[in-house]
Amino acid sequence: MSTTTASATASAASATATEKTGARNADAAELITGARERIDALDDRIIGLIQERMAVSAVIQESRIASGGRRVNLSREMEVLAHYRDALGKPGTSLAMTMLELCRGRI
User: Fold this and answer.
1) What does the buried/exposed string (b/e) look like for 57-81 if buried means 16 or more CB atoms within 10 Å of the residue's CB?
2) In this protein, which residues make up the domain named Chorismate mutase (predicted)?
3) What count of other Cβ atoms lies within 10 Å of the Cβ of residue 96?
């Protein structure tokens, strides 16, 4: 590969990376690409943890119902909502509501 061809290929790759990331230079594009890969890995872990939480919640609900109780324990849900709100602020409440709905279904 000639120097001119290699340079053109590198420029095209850099242009693609900057277009894909919205960065204005190759260094920023590289940083953003790496950070996005880390976010994707974190998202995969979060999804796995939510799926695990859903399974544990199902066990709790089944046990509660089998013992004659209700499927949902509202006082416990209020504790969970407060925990998320305290840790993450007002958006934490919305996040907790979504997670609770995933774990127990709509009430």
Assistant:
1) beeebeeeeeeeeeeeeeeebeeeb
2) 26-107
3) 19
Q: Which residue has the higher pLDDT, 17 or 100?
A: 100
User: Residue for token digits 């242009």?
Assistant: 15
Lowest average pLDDT, out of 13-17, 44-48, 60-64, 70-74, goes to: 13-17
Q: Residues 6 or more apart from 17 whose CB is under 8 A from it?
A: 23, 26, 29, 30, 33
